[in-house]
Amino acid sequence: MKTLINLFFTTVFVLLLAHFLHGVHVDSFTTAVLVAAVLGLLNIFVKPILVLFTLPATIFTLGLFLLVINAIIVMICAELVPGFRLDGFWVALLFSLVLSVCQSLVAGLTNDRDRR
């Protein structure tokens, strides 16, 4: 159930970010659902490999290189999902940063309910 809630909120955030950020294009609600699902799968399977290979750069930058890895994951998602387009690396970086903050806020709110 928690996974479906996260998928729903990620879909909503993808649609909102596509509306407010210039350079992010999502064709439909179905595309946004697909983007949310593909992002989740990429974060599970591809991101740990990227983090492992770029560990020296991540340590050297005190963890800031993880923002670049998140942007790369979003750019890979844009290549995989038809109907989801980004206008460049900086747009992907901003998109991934705002999406991560929004997802963290939702996770914090849903975890507070679980504790009560």
Automatic annotation (TrEMBL):
<dbReference type="Pfam" id="PF04020">
    <property type="entry name" value="Phage_holin_4_2"/>
</dbReference>
<keyword id="KW-0812">Transmembrane</keyword>
<feature type="transmembrane region" description="Helical">
    <location>
        <begin position="88"/>
        <end position="110"/>
    </location>
</feature>
<feature type="transmembrane region" description="Helical">
    <location>
        <begin position="62"/>
        <end position="82"/>
    </location>
</feature>
<dbReference type="InterPro" id="IPR007165">
    <property type="entry name" value="Phage_holin_4_2"/>
</dbReference>
<feature type="transmembrane region" description="Helical">
    <location>
        <begin position="33"/>
        <end position="55"/>
    </location>
</feature>
<keyword id="KW-1133">Transmembrane helix</keyword>
<keyword id="KW-0472">Membrane</keyword>
<protein>
    <recommendedName>
        <fullName>Phage holin family protein</fullName>
    </recommendedName>
</protein>
